[in-house]
Design a protein that fits this description.
The chain is built from ten helices and no strands. With about 160 residues, it is mostly helical. Helix 6 packs across helix 9.
Length: about 160
């Protein structure tokens, strides 16, 4: 089988543009609801990790760093239940992200809905949910197309011994 894949975002640009517009709308809803970029990016990184989307992980790690996430916090996302670096709100976002990734198993379980709903307002829950719907769609597009994630070029001078 050929490694060349159809690039959905280029092959049907109007559909991709509609998804991008949807994602922007979801992001605006999140901002209006008071979900800061740090919390949003934590949820998007985790969704992309769980879906196995290296392309989206890279994008959202970069955005997370821009939103103030440290390397330690990013490293702790995969083990958030055992980590003490996330706020109750961020933990709720991580738990909801997991439910959306694995929605095919049991939907949003009642205990998750109740726990997250006890921390986030209804407006925050709705906005974060739409954001998670968007990232899951993007993950599927990039995974299906095997979008490349090559090594980054680094500034070797910055890493040279003094």
């Amino acid at each position: 089988m050929s490694e060349r894949r159809v690039h959905l975002s280029r092959s049907a640009r109007p559909a991709y543009d509609a998804l991008e517009a949807f994602s922007q709308t979801a992001g605006a809803l999140a901002a209006e609801a008071g979900i800061d970029n740090r919390m949003k990016e934590i949820a998007l990184i985790h969704s992309s990790q769980l879906n196995g989307c290296a392309y989206c992980v890279r994008i959202h790690v970069d955005r997370g760093v821009a939103a103030g996430l440290t390397a330690d916090e990013i490293a702790q996302i995969a083990t958030w239940r055992e980590s003490g670096v996330f706020t109750a709100r961020e933990r709720a976002a991580l738990e909801l992200a997991e439910s959306y990734v694995f929605i095919h198993e049991e939907g949003i379980p009642d205990d998750v809905y109740d726990r997250v709903g006890g921390i986030l307002s209804e407006q925050e829950y709705v906005a974060l949910s739409w954001t998670l719907v968007a990232i899951n769609a993007f993950n599927r597009i990039t995974i299906a197309g095997k979008y490349p994630v090559p090594p980054r070029k680094t500034d070797h001078a910055a890493h040279a011994p003094a």
